[in-house]
Amino acid sequence: RLALESQLRRALDEERMCLHYQPRVDLDTGRIVGMEALLRFIDPRQGTLAPGRFISIAEDTGLIIPIGKWVFRATCQQYRVWREQGLDVPHISVNMSGRQFMDAGLVDSISGTLEETGINAENIELELTETFLMENPQKTISVLGELKSLGFNISIDDFGTAYSSLTYLKRFPVDKLKIDRSFISDIPDDADDIAITKAIIAMARNLNLWIVAEGVETEAQLSFLKAHGCEEVQGYYFSRPLDVDTATRLLQRKHPFDHLIAKETKISTVRRI
Ligand code: C2E
Ligand code: MG
Ligand code: MG
Fold first, then answer.
1. Atom 23 (ligand 1) nearest CA
2. What pTM was computed for the model?
3. Which residues surround ligand 3, an ion (CB under 5 A)?
4. Residue 167: its pLDDT value, please?
């Protein structure tokens, strides 16, 4: 942990952070409607590490503040590059940790970055975990309001993993719920996960929230989600998070997921008959 901490302290200066991108796919059209930026740390000894290995250390040490600023700027810059290459990415999403969200300088910092990079807040989704939002509901409502008024879309990530107060859910100015992967992984075998996922989708629709399922890995999961009105999916079934060159090549292809969606549609039609 100590070794990792000292590596993390030098990570930004030594350019050892990078972003991978995972597409989010519209379930009806198969189009890529967004890319989620996912942080990676290139540790000199252990190679590329996923955030599960280092985010909590970054949070505990406060390093998450400069790292988070870097992530936001790098995401905006990449978005701009894709735009300049004529690639169509309606949205790009960025994960934010609680500590970063509570930082008094957050709104000024991200407004400055938007201006500097020439990106509209409307094209960016900020993802906050349900656990964090529900731990600090009163405080977050005002910051969320400020971010909303700048034009950002706000998503609740890992939805279903914390104890959600439905009252707050109504009061939070959020646009989207991302159903946590843990519910999707045992569909269609686990009756409880099926019931919970159906209930989350129904609730989101009634609250006029957009719904995304995370961690879709199989055709059966996709079929189920489509049949129950889920609008957007993300997962290995379509693509793993990709380094920037591979993500760019994916965006350059005209309809990269048509075959997966078409296959799925045929199956669900057969089932319905
Ligand atoms: P998340 O935002 O919920 O991101 C989804 C995670 O699920 C990613 O893990 C992704 O690689 C993984 N995933 C996507 N599809 C599938 C699938 O079909 N199957 C399986 N088994 N996994 C899938 P990753 O990249 O390791 O990120 C983990 C978490 O770290 C993220 O969860 C997010 O909460 C956090 N994170 C990532 N980047 C950042 C960042 O820049 N800042 C902050 N504060 N947190 C970040
Ligand atoms: Mg996320
Ligand atoms: Mg998640």
1. 215
2. 0.95
3. 157-158, 214
4. 82
